[in-house]
């Protein structure tokens, strides 16, 4: 595997896989795609503390598990996600609950202008999945959509995520209608640690019995508080608060998750 290698598909927009991701988001007994309901509620409490209801943008909103709850608490919410299936679900739930939350299909790596928001959030360690160039594009988007005095809230893995990962290669056989494709398939996996860049790469090569092979690579950066503070400073943000107690032991692939609150420097 090459550092920052890119796969042949984007799993969040692939017509088949995006449906499987939505199902994973909605499984309240698993944190494979979204955190468990009690952790989501605690995270929302922390994000909104000491803030009067205002405008909130949820970058990578998924099926609206955060956005709709924040809307129910009186905020003007916009959720943005590249997964069209998740956005449709979020809109449906908002309508059923007569919430004012709005949703848009789009990539937070594209230059998007939705107005000015009091809080911008990106939750579930999405930030650590971004390659350096993508990280710069995303932070520019965040800055351009924050109002005067607005804050950016997000989370990243700490160093202990390494304890749950092992380098190596493997393969498995999947039956029909699996996570990856309709057809039975072989899945080849490779995991590699790039220590100098503080990132793990997980590569999946899928070989369907029917159809063309495809691949995807998921990158997982990890940080110290000092490292994320320096990175934010380089992009014109100032870290104002951290919280490392929102994800409990036994949840997620690691409980070492750092939640960060930041503001545009000088605002």
Name a few traits of the molecule.
267 residues, alpha/beta, Rossmann fold, 2 domains, 7-stranded mixed sheet, 4-stranded antiparallel sheet, 6 helices, 11 strands, 24% helix, 31% strand, Methyltransf_25, SAM-dependent_MTases_sf, Methyltransferase type 11, transferase
Shape: globular
Q: What's the CATH first level of the largest domain?
A: Alpha Beta
How far the N terminus sits from the C terminus, by CA atoms, comes to 42 Å
Strand order of the largest sheet: 3-2-1-4-5-11-10
User: If you compute it from the alpha carbons, what radius of gyration comes out, rounded to the nearest whole angstrom?
Assistant: 18 Å
Percent strand: 25-35%
How much helical structure, as a percent, in the residues? Answer: 10-25%
Give the helices and strands as they follow along the chain: HHEHEHEEHEEEEEHEE
CATH architectural name of the largest domain = 3-Layer(aba) Sandwich
Give me the count of strands: 11
Give a structural overview.
The structure is a single chain. With 267 residues, the chain is an alpha/beta fold. It folds into 2 domains: 17-159 and 222-264, Rossmann fold (3-Layer(aba) Sandwich); 162-219. 24% of the residues lie in helices and 31% in strands. It is built from 6 helices and 11 strands. The chain has helices at 17-25, 37-48, 67-72, 84-96, 132-144, 225-234, and strands at residues 55-59, 76-81, 102-105, 117-122, 146-157, 168-174, 185-194, 199-208, 214-221, 237-243, 257-264. The strands form 2 sheets. It has a 7-stranded mixed sheet with strand order 3-2-1-4-5-11-10, with helices on both faces. It has a 4-stranded antiparallel sheet with strand order 6-7-8-9, with no helix packed on it. Helix 5 links the parallel strand 4 (117-122) and strand 5 (146-157). Helix 1 packs across helix 4. The longest helix has 13 residues, at 84-96. The protein is globular and about 55 Å long. The relative contact order is 0.15. The model has no long low-confidence stretch (mean pLDDT 94). One of its GO terms (molecular function) is methyltransferase activity. Keywords: Methyltransferase, Transferase. This is Methyltransferase type 11.
């Amino acid at each position: 595997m090459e550092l920052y290698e890119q796969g042949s598909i984007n799993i969040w927009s692939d017509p088949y896989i995006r449906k499987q991701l939505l199902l994973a988001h909605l499984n309240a007994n698993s944190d494979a795609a979204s955190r468990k309901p009690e952790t989501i509620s605690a995270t929302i409490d922390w994000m909104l503390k000491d803030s009067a209801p205002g405008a909130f943008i949820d970058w990578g909103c998924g099926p609206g598990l955060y956005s709709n709850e924040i809307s129910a608490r009186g905020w003007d919410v916009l959720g943005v996600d590249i997964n069209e299936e998740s956005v449709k679900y979020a809109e449906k739930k908002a309508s059923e609950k007569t919430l004012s939350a709005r949703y848009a299909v789009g990539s937070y790596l594209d230059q998007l202008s939705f107005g000015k928001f009091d809080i911008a959030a990106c939750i579930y360690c999405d930030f650590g999945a971004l390659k350096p160039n993508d990280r710069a594009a995303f932070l520019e988007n965040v800055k351009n959509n924050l109002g005067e005095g607005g804050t950016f809230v997000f989370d990243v893995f700490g160093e202990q995520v390494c304890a749950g990962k092992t380098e190596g290669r493997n393969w498995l056989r999947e039956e029909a209608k699996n996570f990856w494709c309709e057809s039975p398939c072989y899945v080849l996996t490779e995991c590699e640690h790039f220590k100098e860049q503080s990132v793990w790469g997980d590569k999946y090569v899928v070989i369907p019995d029917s159809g063309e092979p495809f691949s995807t690579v998921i990158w997982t950066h990890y940080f110290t508080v000092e490292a994320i503070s320096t990175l934010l400073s380089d992009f014109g943000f100032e870290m104002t608060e951290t919280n490392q107690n929102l994800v409990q032991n036994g949840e997620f692939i690691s409980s070492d998750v750092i939640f960060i609150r930041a503001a545009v420097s000088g605002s």
